[in-house]
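Batch queue: ligand-bound targets. Current item pairs a single chain with pyridoxal-5'-phosphate. No template structures supplied; prediction is de novo from sequence plus SMILES. Inputs echoed for audit trail.
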Amino acid sequence: MRFSSQVNFPSPLDVIDNNFRGSGIALYMKRDDLIHPWVNGNKYRKLSCNIQHFYDKGFAGICSFGGAFSNHLIALAYITHVECIPFVAFVRAYEYDHNNPILKKISSWGTKIIIVPPDQYHLKEQGEIPQSFLKEHNNYYLIPEGGTNDLALKGAAQIIKEIYSQTDTDKYSKVVCTVGTGGTSAGIYANMNSTENLMLACPFKSNLSYLRGFELIKRDIPIDTINVSNHKKFGAYDPDIVSFINRFYNDYQVLLDPIYTAKTMYWLANNLDHVHLNDIQKIIFIHTGGLPGIIGYNYLYRNKETIRIPLKYDHLQSPDMTFG
Ligand SMILES: Cc1ncc(COP(=O)(O)O)c(C=O)c1O
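Prediction returned. Tokens below.
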């Protein structure tokens, strides 16, 4: 696989702050954000085994689902571009926004974009539009939205295996992972020596009774699972989060994404004395990436305070990303 030669792997485990916010707790970070500029964090973990599966089974192409600013689609678009694999993205949108910098980028990489209106999108591959495509292309490999399937969990398991080889974990350590579908965290959970060490952070308001990843491993959702945001709308603008990302980068030179990692880190920074963290001496925060999503966030909320993109993330502000 040509793409494998581009990744920074295994990702480092860095000590970010020995005394986070004066709490006495050390903040460590698993730097999956550094794996690749476009295929950050859990996207790399979830997709690597899926791409191998594509080759093993001799499929003709790949198709998948995602929103108009989806990190999952960006990552898949990049990998398929490098690997010269035909890729079709079913994008949830009312219409094709030709100014959307993410859609511009992925189509420049050769992705075929098919717009699926929101009222049909939830039907996924059963919907009329994907169905008619799949009927003609039954040799395409369908990767679910967000990439969460058994192979993704296998990739995510590597995260905790690497952490165990990089630092000691004991009952005073807490591994913190942010969740969407729960695929990343379920892969981690299933491979932990002690699952009490895992804390899951959900960045959108939800009753947390169902996570697809935990259904795949047939386990209950861990007790230590919390909501870290009051926003019901996924991806809603949050000025506190934008300022927090800008400050956090100033303090630690680590860029967080606005949808998942920043919300989790913001919650931690403000709740270090929270009951869940009692007696904890070391937090191991998994940076699940998502940085390309900043482009979409800054585009959507371009009339508000935006996330500052540091110079070393040049690709996130390249000329073809100019808005309008
Ligand atoms: C940056 C980031 N972190 C965490 C998650 C949540 O991962 P999962 O869906 O595996 O729970 C996502 C979504 O895939 C993401 O983009």
